[in-house]
Known about the structure:
Number of strands: 8
Largest sheet: 5 strands, antiparallel
CATH class of the largest domain: Mainly Beta
CATH topology of the largest domain: SH3 type barrels
Number of domains: 2
CATH architecture of the largest domain: Roll
Strand content: 25-35%
Structural class: alpha+beta
Order of helices and strands: HEEHHEHEEEEEHH
Helix content: 25-40%
Strand order of the largest sheet: 7-6-5-4-8
Number of helices: 6
Oligomer: single chain
Radius of gyration: 20 Å
Distance between the termini: 60 Å
Amino acid sequence: MPGELASRLQPIVAEAVTAAGFDLDSFEVQQAGRRQLVKVVVDSDDGVGLDEIAEISRTVSAALDENEHVLASAYTLEVTSPGLDRPLTQPRHWRRARFRLVKVTPADGAPFVCRVGHAGEDAARVLAGGKLRDVRYADVAKAVVEIEFKQPPAEDLKLLEDDASGMIAAGQAETEKGSK
């Protein structure tokens, strides 16, 4: 029943979240005693603050109340943003991790830590071991943001920024980093 209910509620919740200007990252309905627990995880390229979570919660709650015939029971709504430990599984996750340190476990090969630059639809440009390289999402078994306790090196951020803006020609990345 919760799976069937989730499939009917998901478009309603997605529309409310999108109308509020955010992305529906995940959605789940669970039975919690006599009530349904509706879990909504939202995100955006600019992140999500507590005030925005409250506003989205009101918007989603109103949408669910308008469609109470679909729920047909009492519910508890939980709206949150994804945690830092969420794996990077979609291009938008990589875009949102721009300039962050990420541990990548490739499908083949040894894990490595890199700093994320421009993220396209099929691959992200990263700085790993002082070299710029492309990481195809299809080649990644797992990628997770690493927690940093100090500011990233300014030269790393500048290199990634210059690369994204096209200021570095192909093949020059290693030279640029090495000359700093």
